[in-house]
Design brief:
The protein has about 190 residues and is an alpha+beta fold. The chain has three helices and ten strands, in the order E-E-E-H-E-E-E-E-E-E-H-E-H.
């Protein structure tokens, strides 16, 4: 069944800039007002209408990122060997690099380079916690995934060894910080 016309409307607030190339999708964009985006699709099947909603969600996440930003919290959990994490900013590229030492007592130094626009800092309120912040949800979440993936435990019982799980992710809003700092669940 073909849908003759499908449209999604988004309100856009003022401020910030974030770009993404969506030219590979067959949707039309229009700006009827200064603060409104209309995303349209003509003669689309079900998969194209799903792509329309995906485009709307991508743009909405970009709006949230520009207005509030995103923050991922990661804790390093260990049972016996304390994990050492060093954060450095590369002077040539301007990107942060994370060094993870003594993971499961290994001598290997694991290094992860953060994506562009991602800031990382050690939490001041909680021990053994790092916070990744940025305006691009894709870059922040991919940086957190890179850290988590490099610390994946192989050939051992994962219930007995240490790891770095991603504990919390949310749009950053200063008025919600106190409430969200006590939240420790998988999102």
């Amino acid at each position: 069944m073909k849908y003759l016309h499908s449209a999604e409307i988004l309100k856009v607030p003022e401020g910030g800039k974030l770009t993404k190339d969506l030219s590979h999708l067959s949707v039309c964009f229009a700006l009827p007002k200064k603060d409104t985006i209309v995303i349209e699709l003509h003669h689309g099947v079900r998969k194209h209408v799903a792509a329309l909603r995906t485009v709307r969600t991508l743009i909405y996440n970009m709006i949230i990122g520009v207005t509030k930003g995103f923050r991922y919290k990661m804790r390093y959990v260990y049972a016996h060997f304390p994990i050492n994490v060093n954060l450095e900013k590369n002077s040539e590229t301007g990107l942060f690099e994370v060094e993870i030492r003594n993971f499961i007592g290994e001598k290997i130094v694991r290094r992860v380079t953060m994506h562009e626009g991602v800031d990382i800092e050690v939490s001041k309120n909680m021990k053994d916690e790092i916070q990744l912040t940025g305006i691009s949800l894709e870059n922040v979440s991919q940086s957190a995934a890179d850290i988590q993936q490099i610390c994946r435990v192989r050939n051992k019982d994962i219930r007995k060894v240490s790891s770095i799980p991603c504990m919390d992710r949310h749009p950053f809003s200063p008025c919600r910080v106190e409430k969200l700092l006590t939240r420790a669940e998988w999102v």
